[in-house]
DNA sequence: TGAGTGTTAGT
DNA sequence: CTAACACTC
């Protein structure tokens, strides 16, 4: 009996489309290993831990070698007598340093395979060989490359060897409080759930995607993001499934969103500090405010702006927020409250079931105006206008902010017009004044224009 | 993948 | 009077 190969699953629970699983399966028995608690030193957020538990539990019948941190991979390999270790390379340079340490500590050979992108980080380059700074140029260049490879079929047989490890339930991934019940009713973690969602989406909604995707009150998006984040479905599967649908604006727009994911990963690969440090250096000098009480109001969905509060409560309840609303709440935190985007990035990391370092960091920097191809800082979302435009009859707000459910459509996005609504806070800040303040703060960045000089 | 404001051509 | 546009932040 040959010794098994240990496959480090990292975050890709199913190793969807990755050659590591296929290669190892062809070579004999395998041990599947998964490490919890850390992603390159950053603990999983609470929502992600819940998702992980559900997903791992569904690998029913498959025994996993479970470790607490990635540093334990060499120990697990030793414990199960593996003759080799395979894994998928990450796009995140911080995780790559973890990989380097793991590799250095291994006493058996290892093979590292490409990560989970359509276009490997670094493969989409401008004519001068550099990182694209503009998304549309990036995506045009990507689409001109040879198309992404077809998804790999699942191994016909996977001989999983027994292994020592921790018991899933002993890992304490499930929270003590039962806040996950509302998440459980919104999602079906696991590969089957992902496949169902993709099929249902490509079967109809995708055709209206370009027109409907900005409507949080409609169920117009695929909701595949958490499945993608945990490798339960791969971008290559999505890409090739979408090729079977007649190409139209809906499909193109949908695939373009995968493009943003790719763009983010390219950016993170080139800028390891993307989650912490503004890409545009001048933002280091921005006059942010330290205001824990205001941050808390935003987190709890009690800002007094209905579209913002609806979004934050949808996030809290389901671990997900509609993309349009993400932009609105992010703009509110950054520009109205002048709270550092990193605080929002951290909250999203904790509460999103689709939390992903690259997409999360790149998107927050996009809103802040400090990223690549970012919204200019003076592009400030008006929460009332955005609400009226994208939730025109107020049903999204009514759904998530029950205190406002009885309001007429005319005032649903500006309830203060009625005076005080019982149970709902007044606006925590006057948007018009906040906008002026943000513009002034931004202007200061451009270096005080030279003082007038008198000759 | 903004919004406020002013201008103007078209009703 | 209004929609479309340009310009600015």
TrEMBL record:
List UniProt keywords, sorted A-Z. Chromophore, FAD, Flavoprotein
Pfam families registered for this protein in UniProt: DNA_photolyase, FAD_binding_7
Q: Which InterPro entries match?
A: Crypto/Photolyase_FAD-like_sf, Crypto/Photolyase_N_sf, Cryptochr/Photolyase_FAD-bd, Cryptochrome/DNA_photolyase_1, DNA_photolyase_1_CS_C, DNA_photolyase_N, Rossmann-like_a/b/a_fold
Name the domain of life.
Bacteria
Q: Which cofactor does it need?
A: FAD; (6R)-5,10-methylene-5,6,7,8-tetrahydrofolate
Residues in Photolyase/cryptochrome alpha/beta domain copies: 3-118
For this chain, the family text in UniProt reads: Belongs to the DNA photolyase family.
Protein name listed in UniProt: Deoxyribodipyrimidine photo-lyase
Q: Which organism is it from?
A: Magnetospirillum sulfuroxidans
Give the lineage.
Bacteria, Pseudomonadati, Pseudomonadota, Alphaproteobacteria, Rhodospirillales
């Amino acid at each position: 009996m040959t010794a098994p190969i240990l496959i480090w699953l990292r975050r890709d629970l199913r190793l969807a489309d990755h050659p590591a699983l296929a290669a190892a399966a062809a070579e004999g028995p395998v041990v599947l290993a998964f490490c919890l608690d850390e992603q390159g030193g950053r603990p999983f957020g609470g929502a992600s831990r819940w998702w992980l538990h559900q997903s791992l539990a569904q690998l029913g019948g498959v025994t996993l070698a479970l470790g607490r941190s990635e540093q334990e991979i060499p120990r697990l390999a030793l414990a199960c007598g593996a003759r080799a270790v395979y894994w998928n390379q990450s796009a995140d340079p911080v995780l790559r340093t973890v990989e380097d340490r793991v590799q250095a500590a291994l006493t058996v050979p290892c093979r590292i395979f490409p990560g989970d992108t359509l276009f490997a980080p670094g493969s989409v380059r401008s004519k001068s060989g550099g990182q694209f700074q503009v998304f549309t140029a990036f995506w045009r260049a990507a689409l001109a490359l040879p198309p992404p490879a077809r998804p790999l079929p699942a191994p016909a047989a996977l001989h999983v060897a027994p292994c020592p490890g921790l018991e899933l339930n002993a890992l304490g991934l499930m929270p003590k409080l039962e806040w996950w019940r509302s998440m459980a009713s919104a999602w079906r973690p696991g590969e089957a759930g992902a496949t169902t969602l993709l099929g249902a989406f490509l079967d109809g909604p995708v055709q209206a995607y370009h027109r409907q995707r900005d409507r949080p009150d409609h169920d117009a998006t695929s909701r595949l993001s958490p499945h993608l984040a945990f490798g339960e479905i791969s971008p290559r599967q999505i890409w090739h499934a979408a090729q079977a649908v007649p190409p139209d604006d809906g499909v193109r727009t949908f695939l373009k969103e995968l493009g943003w994911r790719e763009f983010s990963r390219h950016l993170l690969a080139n800028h390891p500090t993307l989650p912490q440090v503004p890409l545009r250096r001048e933002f280091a000098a921005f006059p942010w405010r330290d205001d824990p009480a205001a941050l808390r109001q935003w987190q709890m969905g009690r800002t007094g702006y209905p579209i913002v509060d609806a979004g934050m409560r949808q996030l809290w309840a389901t671990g997900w927020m509609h993309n349009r609303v993400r932009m609105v709440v992010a703009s509110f935190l950054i520009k109205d409250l002048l709270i550092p985007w990193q605080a929002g990035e951290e909250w999203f990391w904790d509460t999103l079931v689709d939390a992903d370092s690259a997409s999360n960091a790149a998107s927050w920097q996009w809103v802040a105006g400090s990223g690549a191809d970012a919204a200019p800082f003076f592009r400030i979302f008006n929460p009332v206008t955005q609400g009226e435009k994208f939730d025109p009859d107020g049903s999204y707000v009514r759904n998530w902010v029950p205190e406002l459910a009885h309001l007429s459509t005319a005032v649903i996005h500006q309830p203060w017009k009625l005076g005080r609504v019982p149970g709902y806070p007044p606006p925590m800040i006057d948007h018009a004044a906040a906008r002026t303040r943000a513009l002034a703060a931004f202007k200061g960045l451009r270096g005080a224009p030279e003082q007038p000089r008198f000759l």
